[in-house]
Amino acid sequence: MLISLIRKTVGRLILLADSLFPPEQAASIQDFSRSLTLFQFEACPFCVKVRRAMRRLGIQAELRNALPGTSAAEELIREGGKLQTPCLRIKKDDGSFQWMYESSDIIQYLETLTPH
Ligand SMILES: N[C@@H](CCC(=O)N[C@@H](CS)C(=O)NCC(=O)O)C(=O)O
């Protein structure tokens, strides 16, 4: 009960800080954004980190909230292997999907997509 209250409060504070201090946003949205889907929890700090990197890089991915019990959570467990967020689903040229966990790996991958 207390833990859940603390978690909710910390989550809200993270979202507030994220909105108060937005990262510099890149000017253009890249075409490849359409092949990316981020499975996430809204107030998860690792997901906030990835969403901020996306904004900074000008990458727009579909966001799917994977709260337990949702179809997104079921798909993430079934296809990705576990219910952990963030997880980036990458649609490859042959139509198959790659599932990438770990916020640092995801950000590193996103940075390879944009010129800098
Ligand atoms: N090392 C991971 C940590 C991700 C993580 O702990 N995510 C939490 C949500 S904030 C989660 O999904 N926990 C559920 C679990 O790990 O089973 C990363 O950087 O992405």
Which short descriptors sum up this protein?
alpha+beta, four-stranded mixed beta sheet, 4 helices, 4 strands, binds glutathione
Order of helices and strands: HEHEHEEH
By CATH, the architecture is named 3-Layer(aba) Sandwich
Please report the number of helical segments: 4
The neighbouring-strand order within the major sheet is 2-1-3-4
Mean pLDDT equals 90
Shape: flat
Strand content: 15-25%
What is the CA-based Rg, rounded? 15 Å
Oligomer state of the chains in this structure:
single chain
CATH topology term: Glutaredoxin
Query: What is the CATH level 1 assignment?
Result: Alpha Beta
The domain count comes to: 1
How would you characterize this protein structure?
The structure is a single chain. With 116 residues, this protein is α+β, with helices and mostly antiparallel strands. It has a single domain, classed as Glutaredoxin, CATH 3.40.30. Helices cover 46% and strands 16% of the residues. It has a four-stranded mixed sheet, with helices on both faces. Strand 3 (87-91) and strand 4 form a beta hairpin. Helix 2 (45-57) packs parallel to helix 4. The protein is flat and about 50 Å long. The protein starts with a helix and ends with a helix. It binds glutathione (GSH). Glutathione is lined by residues 41, 44, 46, 83-86, 102-104.
